[in-house]
Amino acid sequence: MSAQTAPTASQNAIVAAASKGLTGNAATQIQAFAAAFYARLPEEELALRSAQQWANIALSSFAFIQKRQAGVANIRVFNPQQASDGFETSHTVIHIVNDDMPFLVDSVSMVLSNFACSLHTLVHPVMPISRDASGQLTAIDSGKNESLIYLEIDRQASTDDMEKIREAIATALSDVRESVADWRIMRDKMNAIADEMATRPMPATASQRSEAQDFLRWAADNHFTFLGYREYEVAAIENQRMLTVVPDTGLGLMRGKDADVKPRPLAGLAAADLPAGATMEPLILTKTNARSTVHRAGYMDYIGVLVFDESGKAIREQRFLGLYTSSAYKRRPWEIPLVRQRHEAVMEASGLGENSHSGKALRHILETLPRDELFQANTEELSRTCMGILALQERVRPKLFLRRDPFGRFYSALVYIPRDRFSTEVRERIEALFMRELKGERLDTNIQIGESPLAQLHLTIRPKSGQKATADTAMLEAELLKIVRNFQDELRDLLVQQCGEEKGLKLANRYGRALPTAYLESVSPVIAAEDVQQADMLENDDQLRLNLYRSPDDNGLRFKLVRLSKEIALSDALPMLENLGLRINSEHPYELNLDEGRIVIQDFEVEPTAGTIEVENSRARFEQAFGAVWAGEAESDGFNRLVLAAGLSWREVAVLRGYCKYQLQTGVPFSQIYMEETLVRYPLIARLLVELFAARFEPCRDDKTDAATCNRLHKNLIDIVPVADREKIATILEEIAADRALDRDAQFDACDDALAIFLEKVASLDEDRILRSFITVIKGTLRTSFYQVKNGSHRDYISFKFDASKLPDLPKPRPYREIFVYSPWVEGVHLRFGPVARGGLRWSDRREDFRTEVLGLVKAQMVKNTVIVPVGSKGGFFVKRSPVGGDRDAVLAEGIACYKRFINALLDITDNIVDGKIVPPVDVVRHDKDDPYLVVAADKGTATFSDIANGISAEHGFWLDDAFASGGSVGYDHKGMGITAKGGWESVKRHFRALGRDCQTQDFTCVGVGDMSGDVFGNGMLLSEKIRLLAAFDHRHIFLDPNPDSAISFKERERMFKLPRSSWDDYDKSLISAGGGVYARSAKTIPLTPEIKAALHIETDLEAMTPADLMNAILKAPVDLLWNGGIGTYVKATSETHADCGDRANNALRVNGNELRCKMVGEGGNLGMTQRGRIEAAHAGVLLNTDFIDNSAGVDTSDHEVNIKILLGAVVQRGDMSLPERNILLASMTDEVGELVLMDNYRQNQAISVMEAMSTSRLGSFGHFIRTLESQGLLDRGIEFLPTDAELSERKSRGQGLTRPELSVLLSYDKIVIFNQLLDSDVPEDPYLSKELQRYFPKPLQEKYAADMQQHRLRREIIATMVTNSMVNRMGSTFLLRMQEDTGETPAQIAKAFTISREILESRDWWSSIDNMDLKASESAQISALTDIWHLQRNMTRWLLNKPGETLNIAAQVERYAAPMRALKAALPAILPADSRASLEADKKAWMKQGFSSDMASDFAKLPYLTYALDIIEVALERKSDVALVGEAYFALSDALHTKWLMDNVEILPVEGRWHAQARGVLRDELQAQQRALVGIVLSQGDGKKSAEKLVADWLSRDDATLKYTLSMFADMRNLRSMDFATLSVAVRRLAQIASASTRAA
Questions:
Q1: What is the residue-averaged pLDDT of the chain?
Q2: Mutual orientation of helices 683-697 and 672-681 as an angle, nearest 10°?
Q3: d(CA 106, CA 34)
Q4: Which of 44, 231, 484, 629 could form a disulfide with 398 if both were Cys (CB 3.0 to 4.6 A apart)?
């Protein structure tokens, strides 16, 4: 074992098993034996059996070798049994032990090969073994080497067969032993003979003598394996010279076998006498008649050395038998003695220059000639053969070179045939020819095919013993020519005949040789000529040549396809043809291998799956359809049966398939297969559906057609109908064909009427619904790209534009317009909820329901877009052929290609604007109005695609140019700006302010979803340096840092964000606090450290958690902030199932809303929570809005970008600005655009907070608002998860209002409704509100391009959006509806009144000052101030709307009231009565105590008194009095009559519903009106000299019974505990009586 490698673990186990139970020397010996036995057996072999099984085999082998006599091989062939042999195997086992020597395994393998036995196991150790004199084994690892062979062969059932194998092996091993024993002697003998030849007499030249010597020495130098030797001498026997054995000269295989050799006559042998003076080669080089049993199979080589006497007679032969070694065959001819001499002789005899082309070719021929020929043939034979081969180089043709062994033992045939004609069949036929004609008993063949155009066959044929064969070379060559030349020659002649000589020969040369045997046997040359011409038309791997035909033999239907490179797999072709209506009965595939590739011909025997086929009428249509399916231009499904069944082209079938795919996306209850089967079952209806589609959309249908077209249509229709039914419906089909000559409407009506008739005959209700659904979607289609032709061909997609209102079964909400894109590569949908809409296009991974996904997203987009000009839209596409197992780049490339198709499909049917005029798309029949506005944006999977979209926009010359898709390289980079995250952070800051904390200056804890490479998460986690991020996860990793340092971790996150691509695994682990780490989500479990348990408040004794459980715990962590910047839905409601969330990937980690323990949620990502989950979390005390509120900054930025580009586009177009200058200007405004956008986020948060503050007290108003929108079809309470009326009542009883998520929905829906109302009004045309248009844009644009803004394509939409946002953000969602119901005015009038009130109050200054108090005053104080302003503006708006005859000219009204309002506000403290003044001062101090400045506190304290300001100003203006004087009188009278007290009681009246609210409003209006009338009366009694106080006192002191009674009544009322509607109505009525009485008195 010392020389072996160290034993492996498997070997050790075997040794241990073998020696188990043994002790002492027995154990030692078996251990040594087993180790040596398996030392060289590969580990993979050992693995196939157990250690015990191998040990049992070793024990059996050890027992077998126990005794052996030296020089004897022990052999056993047996089928082992467990009982007797200690092991079992399914094979027959051979045990051999022998003295170690060469050739053992080779020779045994030859024996087994002769018995056709496969070898399954071979163990061949060589080990030293010591034996005693009797052969008994005494020790292992010492003594002489012995060869042990353990073999397992095919199981032999017969003992006789096993004995025969044993005997054959014994014979072979005996031969090996004899050969090996004498090989040195034989080698030395050959060298000695070579030396002796120098002095021996011989009839040879000196050169011949020298070469013979060199050859013998060369052979002895490891170029010849010696197997036997014997000497022969010439003796006279019975007067005849005979060649006889020299006794006792035999060596190796010939030792001791002299008696077996009989004397042979000398005549005909090499030793025969030579003529006087002749010379001859002293060596005989040939083959024996005996085959080798040692080392290598084959006839043994023969080297004979002739011994001559002085007279030149051969008197002796010294004969060596053996095998040339492999190295001998590798030597070049000029390196082998004797052969080199012949080589030079042939070269010299040729007369060719050594460096000439032919000379080099001849030298190459000699080099590639079989070595046996070089050894055995003489110079003349070699020269003749080689020159003949050389001639073949000039004209390739079949050729035979036949040589007979000079001793008659065999024939050597060199056959050359054109390489392209060579095949196994040809070889076998050639072998059969020679065996037959040469009476062969045995034939050996060697084949050589190289770069030469000729294939070389070297055949050695040994005639049968006693047979005399006469070799007729000419006859053999003629027969050879017949074998090689047959089919191809006929084919060549046909091709020359059909294509002309030049092309025909070219085709024959290229394809004829490549036709396979099976093809040649199956088809005629005539068919082959046609196929060859078809094949020659192929230019690339993507092409197919097809032929649907009837077989000329049996008239059977056939379908043939010809293709480059590779065949279409039957498993692929079968469903393609089945789907096209043909069933494959059999396939005949053929392969043509060409130099530049291969061509495949597949001939299918087919039959129709239903009915019969008129081949001539269907051929072209069918072949085109199959070609389209194979090329991927059409899908392979049951719709394709309509090609034959309904006579449709594959593109017409694609229309029906596209409509089917759309309906599946809308949730129809039928499967695609059912719809396919239904249309195939009613092929005429299917054909008429396409005709209906064509009548509606084919551009040429507006032109009158000729009779031929009508007749053709009639024939196409009638061919579909079974013959038996044609007469019944002939009239209907004739009318359809006749109406083809009429206008489009008539054609459409004819098809529609026919369909109605045929549908009556459909028996199944479901099938009827399916067929009618196709009619419905066709009628609901407004535009299609189907008939568009660009660059001479149709696009590989179809786009359909729908009017959703005409599709009654669409799921809600229904879009305004919808575009569906169908293609074999991609399907997509774009939903728009208004003429001007925007939203992203996402790369969906939901094949079956991406429309459902998009519809869900567009609902969020609709409410998100309320902050911008366009309403909501959303698109999504699904990549249908994403590379399976493809890498990231391959998948991305396919996604981009599909995205391009989708964008092109959208633009193909969208109107353009050129020079200010609408330009409809080419070849598109429109059934809707002008519709040029289409913008898109990035979304999931398309974040970097905006430049691609804008490039396509430019290709289309689309009017929006690079404003088509926002966020491109020339636009606002959302990630670079961090704008989406910043918008969401406004919500986070608001939530912290609500808690009285500043997240920008105070540390806070956070967990999150996402990683630093993401836009929203990465930017979000850099928006405060005080973030202590405890944990986060994305789809790859889980990050844990239980006790982070906010400053250090911020810098590390900042570093990671700057990396091109990063993951949590890039986080510097040394910066993570103790107990933390980064773990792969693919891990089985993740350790739970005490630090992590404490940080995340995980109460468990477990030491590890699965990744899903840990992420679940992270989501439930009791931190300050949960920041979602990832993709997925992570929070649901308790009442929802995981399936409701539509995000299976996160089912295992999702939590319920009431399980959240964070203080707030920031939703940077979309759909991170379900709406029900948000509401549940809000009820549990979590501060949060919704995703569409938090992350609206992205769409807001994009909207600004688009509208700025539209604005500046006009400037660039007229030449006042270059495109580079525009881009620079655009970039320079980035920060200001960001500020404008973030202010919108701030405002929406603020609006929700104000609404939340009023939510409980105004719950009835919110409920009424919900019911009203629902009744108008503008809101679906169920879809938006808003509370039912019963739930609202329950909340009211609990004193609980609406949550922020619910208020977010109402805020957004109100904006949607109001925007549309204002857009349809004159508000966008109001000159005063044009300021809103300028305010929308950044300051650098406001002055310089103000005129261009007035021409902006979306001017009206921008103004309507700005006014809507301004009003709703300040007044809340219920304001406008209440104003409408209370005043009966239009939304436009209400918006104007609100604007007037805002301007005259200068509310923006107040709002701004409140905003500046963030974290200086409490949020509740800020909300209180905003609420007081809200009350004031609501009352003023109502006052303005109730003013009789008012047209509400904003500018005029502001001019009328603004200055007096400022004067009144300034005079207010001085003109109030003492008690009111004291109350004012107290309120001021209260406001100051909450943190407001003195000026602000003063303004806010005045707010309750400004409720009456417009009454005061109006009286002052009417009387042309000083507003301060009127005000003083007003408040003095109010104090005296207690009207403020009355107003306060009106305000606190309980409201149980809409009518109570209106009644309260009427009381308020009436009270103010009476107060205003009384003030006018009081002031009318003055002479201009009395003070207001004096005037009021004088008026009150009058002797007026009505007045006195009223004052007395009010005094009684003031003693009441509460006031109700009736009491207050009486009080207000009494004031009216006073006013009336005073007026009469005056």
A1: 88
A2: 100
A3: 24
A4: 484
Alpha-carbon span 533 to 495, nearest angstrom:
8
- What confidence score (pLDDT) does residue 1480 get? 92
C-alpha span between 213 and 202 (Å, rounded)? 13
User: Scanning the structure block, which residue is given the tokens 């719709």?
Assistant: 639
- Residue indicated by tokens 């200001």: 1232
* Alpha-carbon separation of residue 592 from 515, 542, 549 (angstroms): 5, 17, 22
pLDDT at position 375 is 80
- DSSP string of 89-115? -SSEEEEEEEE--TTHHHHHHHHHHHT
In a 13 Å sphere around the CA of 278, the CA atoms on its Cβ side amount to: 10
- Residues 546 and 724: their CA atoms lie apart, in Å, by 33
Identify the CA nearest to 499 among candidates 533, 526, 534. Answer: 533
- Nearest residue to 558 (alpha-carbon basis) of 486, 638, 512, 619: 619
pLDDT of residue 937: 84
Predicted confidence at residue 895, as pLDDT, reads 94
Q: What pLDDT shows up at residue 10?
A: 79
pLDDT digits (tens, 9 = 90+) for 126-178: 999 999 989 999 998 888 999 999 999 999 989 999 999 999 999 989 888 98
What six digits make up the tokens of 280?
């001859």
% of the chain at pLDDT higher than 90: 46
Residue 1026: active-site member:
no
Q: How many other CB atoms sit within 10 Å of the CB of residue 1098?
A: 17
Contacts 24+ apart (CB under 8 A), 571-578: 573/602, 573/604, 575/636, 576/626, 576/629, 576/630, 576/636, 576/640, 577/604, 577/606, 577/626, 578/609
Report pTM.
0.65
Reduced 3-state DSSP string for 125-153: CEEEEEECCCCEEEEECCCEEEEEEEEEE
* Residue 82 buriedness (CB in 10 A; 0-12 / 13-18 / 19+): exposed
The H or E element that residue 598 is part of is strand 597-608
Backbone angles phi, psi at 1602, to 5 degrees: -60, -45
The first and second tokens of residue 925, run together, are: 């029949």
- Residue 92 φ then ψ, to 5°: -85, 140
Q: What is the pLDDT of residues 1273-1285, one digit of tens each?
A: 888 888 889 999 9
What average pLDDT does range 1147-1163 have in this prediction? 95
Mean pLDDT lowest among 237-246, 659-668, 1082-1091, 1152-1161: 237-246
> Is the sign of the CA dihedral 1263, 1265, 1270, 1274 positive or negative?
negative
DSSP character string of 846-897: -TTTHHHHHHHHHHHHHHHGGGSSSEEEEEEEEETTPPTT--HHHHHHHHHH
Q: Give me the percent of the chain exceeding a pLDDT of 70.
A: 97
Residue 1492, sorted as left (phi over 0), alpha (psi -120 to 50) or beta, turns out to be beta
What's the average model confidence in pLDDT over 1131-1152?
92
Query: From the candidates 287, 560, 864, 874, which is the catalytic residue?
Result: 874
Please state, in angstroms and rounded to a whole number, the distance separating the CA atoms of residues 1295 and 740.
71
Q: Which among 1416, 1451, 1458, 1418 has a CA at the least distance from the CA of 1436?
A: 1458
> What whole-number distance in Å separates Cα of residue 1050 and Cα of residue 549?
75
Q: Band of the pLDDT at 722, cuts 50, 70, 90? A: confident
Q: Which amino acid is at 1512?
A: I
Identify the pLDDT of residue 2. 38
Are residues 1409 and 1497 in contact, defined by beta-carbon separation less than 8 angstroms?
A: no
3-class SS at 1131? strand
Is the pLDDT confidence value at 868 over 60?
A: yes
Cα–Cα distance measured from residue 298 to residue 304, given in angstroms and rounded to the nearest whole number: 19
Burial of 439 (0-12, 13-18, 19+ CB in 10 A): middle
Stated as kind and residue range, the H or E segment containing 805 is none
Spatial distance between the Cα atoms of 1390 and 1450, rounded to a whole number of angstroms: 11
